[in-house]
Specification:
This protein is globular. The N and C termini lie far apart (about 45 Å). The protein has helices at about 70-75, 170-175, 190-205; strands at about 10-15, 25-30, 45-50, 50-60, 65-70, 85-90, 110-120, 120-130, 140-145, 145-155, 160-165, 185-190. By secondary structure, the protein is mainly beta.
Length: about 210
């Protein structure tokens, strides 16, 4: 589990195919951890990379390695190119829950519709897939590339759901969201509680009524 509070901006330095003879194979990412402290990270621990939970397979100095399956590559963005990534170590029971409960499982890809300064802050508008619309609510939580954010406005359409988010200067400075532009794709994770509420409601509606 994670909180969606980015601890550091790292960088994917090299990408190596897990099987150079198989076009459908996954890749091995070598990541410079930046300001992320790795002293307490062991092989097998989880680190969220742009919001996707990955397992540490090697660690050397201030860098680590993860293996990413082809399925994960197909369901995410930002894990197949060299460049900056948002990093967060897995939550411990002693940590503060500064954002919200995050699983590190990407639910879908969104597309940036608008990203522009509004006063001292920035407005980020993302079109989420229509399948995620029922999980998105005013003042609810959403994870964008591993960053826990609050939804300011929701607008549904036949093709998707436009979500407006306000980014304060600190978020811009401390994450890779500063690099977004119109047309950029982003990893989205819906609120964990919303996922279970939807499931409970859908199942309860199928249950036969109890006799009096």
């Amino acid at each position: 589990m994670f909180t969606g509070i980015v601890a550091a901006v790292g960088r994917i330095t090299t990408i190596t195919a897990l099987d150079e003879h198989d076009a459908h194979a996954g890749v091995r990412l070598h990541i410079a951890a930046g300001a992320l402290a790795l002293e307490d990270v062991a092989i097998g621990d989880s680190i969220a990379i742009n919001g996707a939970c990955m397992t540490v397979t090697q660690k050397t100095g201030n860098a680590f390695t993860v293996d990413v399956s082809r399925e994960s590559l197909n369901c995410t963005v930002g894990l197949d190119t060299v460049g900056e990534v948002n990093l967060e170590k897995a939550l411990t029971l002693a940590d503060r829950l500064g954002g919200h409960l995050v699983s590190g499982h990407v639910d879908g890809l969104g597309t940036v519709m608008r990203f522009e300064p509004i006063g001292e802050s920035w407005e980020l508008v993302i079109e989420a897939p229509a399948s995620l619309a029922k999980y998105l609510a005013y003042k609810g939580s959403i994870v964008v590339n591993g960053v826990s954010l609050t939804v300011n406005r929701v607008s549904d359409s036949a093709t998707g759901c436009a979500v407006s988010i306000n980014l304060i200067p600190h978020t811009i400075a401390a994450t890779t969201l500063k690099h977004l532009k119109s047309g950029s794709q982003v990893n989205l994770e819906i609120d964990l509680i919303a996922r279970y509420v939807e499931r409970m409601l859908s199942v309860s509606s199928l249950q036969p009524s109890m006799p009096n």
